[in-house]
Specification:
The chain is of the alpha+beta class. It folds into two domains: 2-141, no CATH class; 145-289, Phosphoenolpyruvate Carboxykinase, domain 3, CATH 3.90.228.20. Helices cover 19% and strands 42% of the residues. The protein contains five helices and 20 strands. The chain has helices at 130-141, 169-178, 236-245, 254-269, 283-289, and strands spanning 2-5, 8-14, 18-20, 37-45, 56-61, 71-78, 81-88, 94-102, 107-114, 121-123, 145-154, 157-162, 182-185, 188-194, 197-202, 214-216, 219-225, 230-234, 247-248, 272-278. The strands form three sheets. Strands 11, 12, 13, 14, 15, 16, 17, 18, 19 and 20 form a ten-stranded mixed sheet that branches. Strands 1-2-4-9-8-7-6-5 form an eight-stranded mixed sheet, covered by helices on one side. The N and C termini lie far apart (45 Å).
Length: 292
């Protein structure tokens, strides 16, 4: 099996007692652009995976609400290797998942630790939150980044609407969709520079399957709820910092962080960015369409 995540191709094999059941990955089996990196990955069952003694913990996500986030995740490092460990609270199949990303050798291996009474495993290869953690690093390896944003294609123009959760990314995408635009993604985008042009790409989502799309980016709108529809172009440090604050950046090593910052600086220096106050009506569509 092969999966295509943005410009990355992953060739996947698995143990005989693992069935890779595509759900969120369902439509990511064909490339939408020529792969820039190719990885090999093997999924295996490991009832006692404890080979992280040489790894150092660099970042963790500890749940404060086991209903909203029924797991803890950990990112560890050993020289050029990055490991992800996920500790599930209530999953019906897994106690733990451990994955090791080796960019130097283009290998990404996944070790599934099942509950004691589970003999056969069925799961999407990008099951949450493994897929979400992996995407951040794969984008970084290619000089791209992930951002909390919805993206649409309207009259051959690619628009990004970025904000923190709950501000209206999905609402904005739906307004445009009803007006005839195509939704690239309603929550998370992969931003990638290809042949000197910045593109947005859809990513596999947690709870639904979506056909992958890619389009050049023409404008970015940093949205906020407002009683009036209003736009103001912003530049420089202000634009860069606001875009960066909405990026997904689970990094702590200097090398990876510097690469991430360089990508965002290049993107914001070459893209029109606007502060956008909006209310959920069609007036915002006409206002954006006539914006220079």
């Amino acid at each position: 099996m092969k999966l295509y995540l943005g410009p990355v191709e992953i060739s996947i094999t698995q143990d005989s007692n693992i069935e890779l059941d595509l759900f969120v990955s369902k439509y990511f089996i064909n490339p939408i652009l020529t792969p820039l990196l190719k990885f090999k990955s093997h999924y295996s069952v490991s009832k006692n995976f404890n080979h992280l003694s040489d790894f150092k913990l660099i970042l963790d996500g500890i749940s404060t609400d086991d209903t909203e986030m029924p797991y803890n995740w950990f990112i560890l490092e050993n020289r050029d290797q990055i490991a992800f460990k996920i500790e599930y609270f209530y999953d019906t199949q897994f106690k733990y998942i451990t994955a090791v990303l080796n960019p130097k050798d283009s290998i990404f291996n996944v070790y599934l630790t099942p509950k004691s009474d589970i003999s056969n495993i069925k799961a999407d290869p990008l099951l949450h939150p493994l897929g979400s953690l992996l995407l951040v690093y794969l984008a970084n390896l290619n000089g791209g980044f992930l951002i909390h944003a919805s993206g649409i294609i309207d009259q051959n123009q690619g628009y990004i609407f970025s904000a923190v959760s709950g501000t209206g990314k999905s609402t904005m995408a739906n307004i445009w969709n009803k007006a005839g635009a195509d939704i690239v993604n309603d929550d998370r985008l992969w931003i990638q520079k290809i042949n000197k042009i910045w593109y947005m790409m859809s990513t596999p989502m947690i709870s639904y399957a979506q056909t992958p799309l890619i389009t050049p980016i023409h404008k970015v709108f940093l949205i906020r709820q407002s009683p009036n529809n209003e736009l103001q172009k912003i530049k420089g440090v202000n634009a860069t910092m606001q875009v960066m604050s909405n990026c997904i950046q689970h990094f702590s090593t200097k090398q990876i962080t510097n690469k991430h910052l360089d990508s965002i600086l290049n993107f914001t220096s070459n893209t029109a960015i606007y502060d956008c106050g909006f209310k959920p009506d069609n007036e915002i569509i006409e206002l954006i369409r006539i914006t220079n």
